[in-house]
TrEMBL record:
The keyword DNA repair does not apply. Gene3D superfamilies: Leucine Dehydrogenase, chain A, domain 1, NAD(P)-binding Rossmann-like Domain. The lineage of its organism: Eukaryota, Viridiplantae, Streptophyta, Embryophyta, Tracheophyta. It comes from Solanum pinnatisectum. Residues 178-408 form the Glutamate/phenylalanine/leucine/valine/L-tryptophan dehydrogenase C-terminal domain. This is Glutamate dehydrogenase.
């Protein structure tokens, strides 16, 4: 099942639980606006090349729309629609005043030079500058983009609208980016994990963890688990997978990866098959990479008691059903990985106020938001007698539906 079909299915289930009117259900599903633009640039050799850029703006009932811009050759409109919709529910679950959006350009950033990427980003910004805005739609980095991409968007947008640091989040610190933003998603995952484990009288330091995907989010999650005394027994990324039943030395593994560019050949671990990571013996499994990795084929073999969805949509609905029957507790993506957008919100607030916070304050506020959101989510589970995924979806959908009705939009 693709990401859009799975997201729509979860939304409809939440709408049924909440008893939403069919008119409002339909209006919440349809995106506010879909933008598609042609971006033609001269390459370094003087030839012209065209790419398709797009932005899906899903909902703005609770505030400006918010979401990443990805540069990827297989940018799929269905997936982007799903991710824009997920952002609407995610920002509502975290209780930050945003709606959802997502966008990108169908290109392979590895095939473009830095100057070509800059030209492409600036042309894309020129095409959409009047459809985004500090109080309209605030982009952020995603797959294939980074702080530098955001700096180019900020500069190009400011040529039309004056200095506007709050137009994008995930910027370089020197241009108004927030301290703590780089670690935010991984740190939020740990705060979410701690809130969940506390319900079961458990602590990070007493458990074993397996992390699939050792990029920014997975590496920060691993580092923070290690600092808290938890044992990370297996990790994987696109270069391979390593394991150590006594716990990996995460700081040393990160140094090894930085030096060699890969996980394997690390002295403190044995190599393992990447496919086996998801079914490896551990207490807590944290998928941090692609969507749909837990499916009908492997769900039965999962040994973890808890799954923390740091990636977007890592568990497809078939796997969800199988894992629930096994008694595996799944902390859903629209809550578990909301740390990134929460600190993006803090960055936007700092830019609007022109007053920057220290990192300690950012992390303290993030913990407060993640812990509060978990208790609100659990409240919905108790009210509607549902699992954590439906607790999160009913919490998010209910907040957006209420905002929509209060504005008088649902007629």
């Amino acid at each position: 099942m693709n990401a859009l079909a799975a997201t729509n299915r979860n939304f409809r289930q939440a709408a049924r639980i909440l008893g939403l009117d069919s008119k409002i259900e339909k209006s919440l599903l349809i995106p506010f606006r879909e933008i598609k633009v042609e971006c033609t640039i001269p390459k370094d050799d003087g030839t012209l090349v065209s790419y398709v850029g797009f932005r899906v703006q899903h909902d703005n009932a609770r505030g400006p729309m918010k979401g990443g811009i990805r540069y990827h050759p297989e940018v799929d409109p269905d997936e982007v629609n799903a991710l824009a919709q997920l952002m609407t529910w995610k920002t509502a679950v975290a209780d930050i005043p945003y709606g959802g959006a997502k966008g990108g350009i169908g290109c392979n950033p590895k095939d473009l030079s830095v100057s070509e990427l800059e030209r492409l980003t600036r042309v894309f910004t020129q095409k959409i500058h009047d459809l985004i805005g500090v109080n309209t739609d605030v982009p952020a980095p995603d797959m294939g983009t980074n702080a530098q991409t955001m700096a180019w968007i900020l500069d190009e947008y400011s040529k039309f609208h004056g200095h506007s640091p709050a137009i994008v989040t995930g910027k370089p610190i020197d241009l108004g980016g927030s301290l703590g933003r780089e670690a935010a998603t991984g740190r939020g995952v740990i705060y979410a994990t701690e809130a969940l484990l506390a319900e079961y009288g458990k602590h990070v330091k007493d458990l074993t963890f397996a992390i699939q995907g050792f990029g920014n989010v997975g590496a920060w999650a691993g580092k923070l688990i290690h600092e808290r005394g938890g044992k990370v027994v297996a990790v994987s990324d696109i270069t391979g997978a390593v394991k150590n039943p006594n716990g990996l030395d995460i700081p040393a593994l990160l140094r090894h990866k930085e030096k060699t560019g890969k996980l394997i050949d690390f002295a403190g671990a044995d190599v393992m098959n990447s496919d086996e990571l998801l079914t490896h013996e551990c207490d807590v499994l944290i998928p941090c990479a692609l969507g749909g990795v837990l499916n009908r084929e492997n769900a039965d073999n999962v040994k973890a008691k808890f799954i923390i969805e740091a990636a977007n949509h890592p568990t497809d609905p078939d796997a969800d059903e199988i894992l629930s029957k096994k008694g595996v507790v799944i902390l859903p993506d629209i809550y578990a990985n909301a740390g990134g957008v929460t600190v993006s919100y803090f960055e936007w607030v700092q830019n609007i106020q022109g007053f920057m916070w220290d990192e300690e304050k950012v992390n303290r506020e993030l913990k407060k938001y993640m812990t509060r959101a978990f208790h609100n989510l659990k409240g919905m589970c108790h009210s509607h007698n549902c699992n954590l995924r439906m607790g999160a979806f009913t919490l998010g959908v209910n907040r957006v539906a209420r905002a929509t009705q209060l504005r008088g939009w649902e007629a």
